[in-house]
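Please, structure for the following, as tokens.
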Amino acid sequence: MNRTRLLMIGALALALGFFASVTVYKKLQAAQGGSSEPMIDVIVAANDLQVGTKIDEHDIRIIKIPLSALPAGAPRRRSDVIGHGVIIPMTKGEFVLSTKLAGDNAGSGLPSLITNGMRAISARVNEVVSVAGFVTPGTRVDVLWTGTPTGANEPETTTVLQNVLVLASGHTLERTSTGEAQNTAVITLLVTPEDAEKLTLASSEGHIQLALRNPLDTRDADVAAAPQRVLYRGAPAPVTHAPVRRVVEKAPPPPASTGVSVQIIEGDKPPQDVKFPDNGSGAK
């Protein structure tokens, strides 16, 4: 009797377990079968890709993701990314997007970072000019010039360029992950052709200094030039002389004749002038 009861209990447990398994399986099948969203290929970085890198076959890999998870601007074919230069660094596993790559035929390295209508120009610096080496790729600076303008009697400092992007520090196209200083002899700036002329002239005619900016501060400041006299307390302001106007006084006209003058000569006597009043009558 006890044996029969144990067999019945065991059979009932097996039946309940089977029923539970079938129920869970059907629910899983329903969950998988109910999602009709297709899976698509997308390109991700197979390695950490630094700025200026030319993407090769081994730098990328293909994974599948749901269509709804596809980021905007994600290339779908390998040929869309291979051979392009990286302009924004990417970490391993990150989506390779068109906005992080240089355009067609832009190449790699520094030229790929130069946008249309802009120029890359280098300037010689030292540890002081480059703000103790903290002027690194990706930072923004103002360029100050100190010199003596033509016709001026004293040197002055003026801001010639504002909010300029630093492309490279020496041969480095990206800043370090820790933001540490990079002491180099040359920095490369991204400027317009007009600003390239100003920077070249400033470098040859005087002394330049870089002022590091907060990247969120993009407003151009209206800063007047600072002459040398502002360094001295109580220095008098320059005296400006008004133009001198010369007034030429005209000589008064000779008085009108009021009579007739006659010179009389008698022998050896000196000549005498005798004046006769004008009576208003004509000569007779």
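The chain has a mean pLDDT of 79. Strands lie at 39-45, 60-66, 119-124, 140-147, 156-169, 186-191, 207-212, 226-227, 259-264, 272-277.
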